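Internal ticket - ligand job 259, zinc ion:
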Amino acid sequence: MKALTWQGKRSVSVEEVPDPRIQGPTDAIVRMTSTAICGSDLHLYEVLGPFMDKGDIIGHEPMGIVEEVGSSVTNIKAGDRVVIPFNVSCGHCWMCRHGLQSQCETTQVRGYNSGAALFGYSWLYGSVPGGQAEYLRVPHADYGPIKVPQTGEDERYLYLSDIVPTAWQGVQYANVPEGGSLAVLGLGPVGQFAARIGRHLGYRVIAVDPVPERRAMAERHGIEALDLHDGVAEELRERTDGRGPDSVVDAVGMEAHGS
Ligand SMILES: NC(=O)c1ccc[n+]([C@@H]2O[C@H](COP(=O)([O-])OP(=O)(O)OC[C@H]3O[C@@H](n4cnc5c(N)ncnc54)[C@H](O)[C@@H]3O)[C@@H](O)[C@H]2O)c1
Ligand SMILES: [Zn+2]
Ligand SMILES: [Zn+2]
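stdout (structure tokens):
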């Protein structure tokens, strides 16, 4: 099959690699129909390079059609359409039972003190081959994959793999008071979703991003959008009666421009 592989710092390429095969009873093989690129992939492209091997398959926002399942997978079957979450979690350990699947104790990469294994995400997260490929082996497929309807564009479901739940949970953790104000820093995919979720929940949302097209996209959805400049903190205070927004979501991440 063809897959997108990491070749070195700032270098990725599509290469011919062996097709994945079922290796254990809880595996599934999924034929990819869509896969997104994440801001998190940029970390691999540059800063996390020392933890990558040449040839690693990247990608963790995939969906597709189940081709084959292992003997103990009963929740999905060949032909089902599924979205695959970024985390590889077992569903039955203490962390999974407490809703902390990103810390799954079965797949946790203890050697690096990191959390649950992640698709396509370096030694730090288990070196699990990722989904920017024609086929993906999904470990713990008896728990992870989300079955979605057969109809509708992939784009309707794809973002369940990572950025919609990330943005939703970020807004939940921000604990915005009823009818309150929320600042969203960064208007990449995660920030766009966090801002729209904030509007959906009835909050006033003020976002900050240096890219005009990203601000314009947010403004089309009822979000106030500010350019990044030295006085932006003061501008946020001015727009909120001098007190500042009630809550903040940082959706910029590691490669911030300025502070
Ligand atoms: N499950 C998770 O925890 C999870 C999931 C997805 C993404 N992430 C992380 O969330 C972050 C955002 O992801 P993304 O895909 O939206 O990335 P992105 O790179 O597309 O977006 C980042 C945005 O921040 C803007 N920005 C840069 N510096 C800024 C500053 N100082 N102030 C305001 N805006 C600034 C950029 O212009 C860009 O629009 C990344 O760090 C990513 O790793 C985490
Ligand atoms: Zn992602
Ligand atoms: Zn678990």
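Auto-summary: The first strand starts at residue 2 and ends at 8. The mean pLDDT is 96.
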